[in-house]
Amino acid sequence: MFGCLLFPSTGMAQAYRPEVMSLNHGEETIYEVYFKWGILMPRAGEARLSFDATGDSTGSSYYRMCFATTRFFDAIYKMRDTLICRYAPDFTLLSAVKYADEGDYFLTDELTFSCLGSQTAVRSLRYTPTVTKIDTMLVSPSGHVFDMFGVVFYLRTLDCNSLRTGDRVTPKVAIGRDLVKIACIYHGRAVVERERRKYRTHRFTVEIYDEAFEQTKSATEIWIGDDGNHLPIKIRSKLKIGAAEIHYKSSTNLKAPLTCRIE
After folding, report:
1. Is residue 193 within a helix (H) or strand (E), and if so which, with residue range?
2. pTM for this one?
3. SS3 breakdown of the chain: % helix, strand, coil, rounded to 5?
4. Burial tier of 197 (Cβ tally within 10 Å: 0-12, 13-18, 19+)
5. Helix (H) or strand (E) holding 73
6. Is 105 exposed, middle or buried (0-12, 13-18, 19+ CB in 10 A)?
7. Beta bridge partners of 235
């Protein structure tokens, strides 16, 4: 569930090359997650994002998110989700996995990415401890292909200073049995304020073209920090009932000073 809160057609059937590399090995960022329903906005949980080297012989890196609901929300809907994207030394996305723990229900989603000539192939495997639900191959003839969490990494590696209001980036996202087209639309610079803290950001909206999502227009908004780290500062996603909001709290071992914060 939590992975679905996150989110120039250049022909990347092969490897995606970051325009800028804003992440630093050892980076860790903490976010607070809120559920907004009318005038109510209780704190629902905490998410930790980290980027580091895997430490194995491949020289690969991982981008990981761990999410846990608060004790209050555990009584309503307990979640302990972990999402991990693994990248080659040139930051080609190699694999993505999501481990979902909902108290008495466990589900694993694994995506493995590879190139077949001019095409991108994704093996999609979904299973519980007792049954395999999906085991299929998805093939895209063109365009960037990621998982939902990988889209956040993608936006962090765009050169936002080269974008103009209205520009669109249109990757595809592998979800279960489908390759889903999304559009990330750039809306220019914006100041985000919460609890007397202000940040300079670049604002994107995300449109998802899939029948599984109730909202196909501006389903998600993402504010990326306007400095050398390109941290997600705020993410707001519409749900069937209410909305989820994710707010930046703190970070360590960043690549650059956090100059997007307005003192």
Report:
1. strand 178-194
2. 0.87
3. 10, 55, 40
4. middle
5. helix 71-77
6. exposed
7. 222, 246
